[in-house]
Design goal:
Elements (H helix, E strand, L loop, with lengths): L1 E4 L7 H13 L8 E4 L10 H6 L9 E4 L2 H4 L4 H12 L2 E4 L4 E2 L9 H34 L12 E4 L2 E4 L1 H15 L7
Parallel strand pairs: 1-2, 3-4
Antiparallel strand pairs: 4-5, 6-7
Helix pairs in contact: 4-5
Length: about 190
């Protein structure tokens, strides 16, 4: 089972319960459960549990149960992941639409492959729209002098959703910008 939510304050209890019930009802023993609290928009290699799951072989598992396609990925990586698991002979089973990637003979179902490709493209578009909305919201908040987060960045303090310069830290921020302007890289 692969469980994923986007933020640390979300939980995947419902996903786990229903996916376990589905696996058991179909006669599968759940051997591994991968739990991830990271955005699916992130690159595949930044998601540790997905990376671990990708190491599985068809000698270890027959099928991976996933809530829906957006739990696996919202990016173009989605179709690559579907193909990667299909080439290994591991079936992906998406509960929400009862999508099963492999036919009885272990090959990728052509129609399912095309359907998943289209869903992956739409998920990619949705992810790009979400990023644009978040960026726009952050920019609008900053233009008003508001914070877009509950944690003030270093050099600022947050009062009533408004950012104020914190003089005790501001000198370090100013110095960092001076060093950057003088040619030092951000790591320095």
């Amino acid at each position: 089972i692969y469980l994923r939510v986007s933020t640390s304050d979300q939980n995947y209890d419902r996903q786990e319960i229903e996916l376990t019930q589905l696996a058991n009802a179909l006669g599968y023993e759940v051997k591994y459960t991968y739990e991830e609290k990271k955005s699916a928009v992130l690159k595949m290699d930044t998601r540790d549990q997905l990376t671990n799951m990708r190491k599985l072989t068809n000698k270890e598992v027959d099928r991976i149960f996933i809530w829906d396609i957006t739990r696996l990925s919202r990016a173009i990586d989605f179709i690559n992941l579907v193909n990667e698991f299909a080439e290994k002979g591991i079936c992906l089973h998406f509960k929400d639409k009862n999508i099963i990637t492999l036919d009885e003979d272990g090959s990728l179902n052509t129609l399912t492959g095309m359907y998943l490709y289209l869903l992956g493209v739409f998920a990619q578009m949705d992810a790009e729209n979400l990023k644009a909305k978040m960026k726009s919201g952050k920019e609008a908040a900053l233009l008003k002098g508001n914070s877009y987060t509950n944690i003030a960045p270093f050099g600022y303090e947050l009062k009533n959703k408004h950012l104020y310069i914190k003089e005790s830290e501001a000198r370090y921020v100013k110095r960092a910008f001076e060093l950057y302007r003088d040619g030092k890289d951000t790591q320095y």
